[in-house]
Specification:
27 helices, about 775 residues, globular, alpha/beta, Nucleoside_phosphorylase_sf, catalytic activity, signal, seven-stranded mixed sheet, 4 domains
Length: about 775
């Protein structure tokens, strides 16, 4: 095995990487070349499985079975040129050459015999299985005070044999995360680590440890867990990092891959444990709090739909198109007997533009013939979270009412827990879940079926009843019992023997949702059958290729969902009478004068203008010119960095309470991060002299690190001054950030989020008359 890898490395160094970049160090280029080559091998092997499926269905069964017996190691040994590996037109030729060598009895086969002209599939494969160099700047929120090793948990790797799993784990992993990075880790003793929390959390951790990100691994599937190749310049070690993980189930699933995957019989285990940064319970608490604040600030949604968010967005867009093709429901359009005429008549019969959901291509074609079509965006609010997205849409019912629906994308396992709790605790009482599930072989289910189970097990084995379905009752299969796992890797032969007689379908989220939403929330789960557990030809590993089979059932269900709730059409031009507060009025006045300024800079100007009693445009313009512009990233970086200084004080002793009593600019939101921040802090009920003596070493460290940017003064205890103080102790984290988010942002109805690239964004949610709100997005 070592010999093979040495030959591979020598070959790569000889031919040079096609993607070598000048900005990378020589060693980074070598590491990236190794990874890129293995990714290309992984992609070719994944393609060969698809080719084998095709041949199996086209009277080439023996050849298909032989191709399936070609291992990735067989492909790597051939040391194919990188140009050929990255040229889809060469793939069949490469596979055929290995087939001839490994199985001489197939030497009679020609390229014509294994021809497969699925160019779309090949093109999509070329979009993944890549390693893109990336340079992440050190997080400005990290200072010398909090540099150093970051705490992590050691997690053991489960004893799991890939051969005992019912699905083709190799093919499944290849599509979802790639196998190549695990092969590389196995061959070079790289460690693989896992990061719970946001992208920003990950970047702050590696900044604290002064590590570097070399490249991002791009997968075949849309993977919300970004994967990076990381380098430690002190130890000279490389590692792989899975980031943006929001639940423990996802951690378990990803860790299991280290034991399942082998390359030349070697697994990617540098040690018998892996490093897991962050804590799932803390991530859930933070996410629940953030979502609860958002859901309470937004109006209560009349309906919440979890799952299939992209498909729903397409359906809503299509309904909007149909409403322009046939603006008057009573006057069908189009020539007699044409497809659009039939759809037009159905709209008239049902009173809903959503009644043509399954005929999107026809509607789109007719829409594009219009002279002045208006493509509309119907999302009036959207929020990007680490593991999911949320968006709101206003819909008009057939009786003229305006209703608000909230759509949330699919998640993995226990990632739904904080979402369910936030929905329940914000008063939402109607939730529909549309997920995917595996049918148990022998239970009369096939890929493409839609089921509404009558019972679900929870993760701890409790059996809970589910609400009777009200949508798609003419085609949805009902009455099943649903089992729960944390990962498809749980579905082993032993698991199957235990659960086969008890359940009909299996997935990861419904038990969590039912348990956490409780009995007072109307909750209906609908599951699209994506695979049949225990079946060779309808396994989860080939689900991507069979996605078309699920589409029809999905669209029929969505059509029923909208029609049975009396929905006529989406609304894109809904306006309401504004009833803004003084803060909001001033903010929008400043926004009119300087729309290019960042939202945080405009908010700071708003606070200053109100306190100075400014009203005219001339006065406001003079203030704007006087105050330096800044952006949210600078503000949040400074607040996080200065919070680190305060934490240095608070962590010295437990049980001591601190109070920020001076620093009026911070307390009232008028501080400009391009200026120094002056804070007065009380320590317990002690005098300034005693506190300064006790914390002298920490104060000197803060001064040496922050310089004049942060000016701390310890002051005498004064009970009167604590009324409006900011309190913190040894358990507090990011105290200045928490104050800004909780007190300053909320004055304008802003909520903060960390986007999928680790950036800070704010969403404005403005209350209006009539008990409803209208939202704008501040990017």
């Amino acid at each position: 095995m070592r010999k093979i890898y040495t030959l591979l490395l020598a070959f790569l160094m000889f031919q040079g990487s096609l993607n070598a970049r000048a900005e990378l160090t020589a060693e980074h280029k070598v590491q990236l070349s190794q990874l890129e080559y293995l990714l290309a091998v992984d992609r070719l092997d994944f393609y060969s499985d698809g080719l084998a499926d095709y041949l199996m269905d086209h009277e080439q069964k023996l050849a298909a079975e032989a191709i399936r017996r070609i291992e990735p190691e067989d492909l790597a040994k051939e040391q194919f040129n990188s140009r050929d590996l990255n040229n889809p037109d060469k793939w069949n030729e490469l596979i055929l050459s290995v087939l001839h060598k490994k199985f001489p009895e197939f030497k009679h086969l020609t390229l014509k015999d294994i021809e497969w002209n699925y160019n779309f599939f090949r093109k999509k494969l070329m979009e993944g299985f890549k390693a893109d160099p990336i340079a992440l700047k050190r997080e400005a929120s990290v200072s010398d005070l909090n540099k150093g090793p970051v705490a992590y948990n050691k997690r053991s790797i489960p004893k799991l044999d890939g051969k005992s799993i019912l699905l083709d784990a190799e093919r499944y992993i290849s599509e979802k995360t790639t196998r190549a990075l695990f092969w590389d880790a196995a061959l070079t003793d790289k460690s693989v680590e896992f990061h719970l929390g946001t992208e920003r959390d990950f970047r702050q951790r590696i900044s604290r440890e002064e590590r570097e990100v070399v490249a991002e691994v791009k997968t075949r599937a849309a993977n919300y867990n970004k994967i990076y190749l990381v380098f430690d310049p002190r130890s000279k070690e490389y590692s792989y990092a899975f980031t943006r993980i929001s639940g423990d189930d996802r951690v378990k699933h990803l860790i299991a891959q280290l034991r399942i995957l082998k390359y030349d019989n070697k697994v990617a285990l540098k040690d018998e444990f892996v490093r897991v940064y962050g804590n799932a319970n803390e991530v859930h608490r933070d996410q629940e709090k953030r979502l609860l604040d958002m859901f309470k600030t937004l109006p209560k949604a009349d309906m919440v739909v979890i799952g299939q968010k992209s498909a729903i967005a397409n359906v809503i867009t299509m309904a909007g198109m149909m409403s322009q093709v046939q603006p008057n429901m009573q006057e069908p359009v189009g020539p007699a007997k044409s497809q659009i005429q039939k759809l037009s008549e159905r709209v008239k019969e049902t009173g809903s533009y959503f009644s043509v959901t399954t005929k999107a291509s026809v509607v789109k074609t007719e829409f594009e013939k219009m002279t002045n079509p208006m493509a509309s965006s119907f999302e009036i609010f959207n929020s990007e979270q680490p593991s999911h997205d949320v968006s709101d849409v206003l819909l008009e019912t057939k009786d003229g009412r305006i209703v608000r629906w909230r759509f949330i994308s699919n998640m993995w396992g226990d990632e739904v827990v904080p979402v369910a709790r936030a929905l329940k605790n914000s008063g939402h009482d109607k939730v529909v879940y549309i997920g995917t599930a595996g049918g148990i072989i022998g239970k009369g289910l096939k890929v493409g079926d839609v089921v509404a189970p009558a019972y679900t097990y929870t993760q701890d084995g409790k059996l809970l009843p589910l609400e009777k379905p009200t949508y798609g009752t003419d085609f949805v299969k009902m009455g099943q019992t649903l089992g729960q796992v944390t990962s498809p890797f749980d579905e082993t032969k032993k698991w199957f023997a235990k659960w086969e007689a008890k359940i009909d379908v299996v997935e990861l989220e419904t038990g969590y949702l039912k348990e956490n939403l409780g009995s007072k929330v109307s909750f209906q789960p609908y599951l699209l059958i994506s695979d049949v557990v225990g079946s060779e030809h309808e396994s989860l590993a080939v689900a991507a290729a069979d996605s078309g089979k699920r589409k029809n059932g999905q669209l029929k269900l969505l059509e029923s969902l909208f029609i049975n709730n009396g929905i006529k059409s989406p609304i894109s031009n809904f306006q309401m009478i504004s009833a803004e507060s003084a803060v909001q009025k001033m903010y929008h006045k400043i926004d009119t004068l300087r729309p290019s300024r960042d939202v945080t800079s405009k908010l700071q100007l708003t606070q200053l203008a109100l306190r100075q009693g400014l009203t005219t445009d001339a006065e406001l313009d003079a203030l704007i010119k006087k105050e330096a512009s800044f952006d949210r990233q600078l503000l949040m970086d400074k607040l996080e960095k200065f919070s680190g200084g305060l934490e240095l004080l608070s962590k010295k002793f437990s049980g001591v309470s601190f109070a920020i009593v001076g620093g009026e600019e911070l307390l009232n939101g008028t501080w400009n991060p391009k200026k120094a921040l002056k804070l007065q802090v009380m320590v317990g009920n002690t005098t300034a002299e005693k506190a300064t003596s006790v914390y002298q070493a920490e104060l000197l460290k803060i001064q040496a690190t922050m310089g004049s940017e942060l000016q701390l003064e310890l002051v005498n205890y004064d009970a009167e001054k604590t009324r409006n103080a900011i309190f913190f102790n040894s358990n507090s984290r990011k105290v200045l950030v928490q104050h800004y988010e909780g007190k300053i942002l909320k004055k304008l109805g802003l909520t903060k989020e960390i986007d999928k690239n680790g950036g800070v964004r704010f969403r404005e949610i403005i209350e209006t008359s009539g008990g409803m709100r209208c939202e704008a997005i501040l990017l």
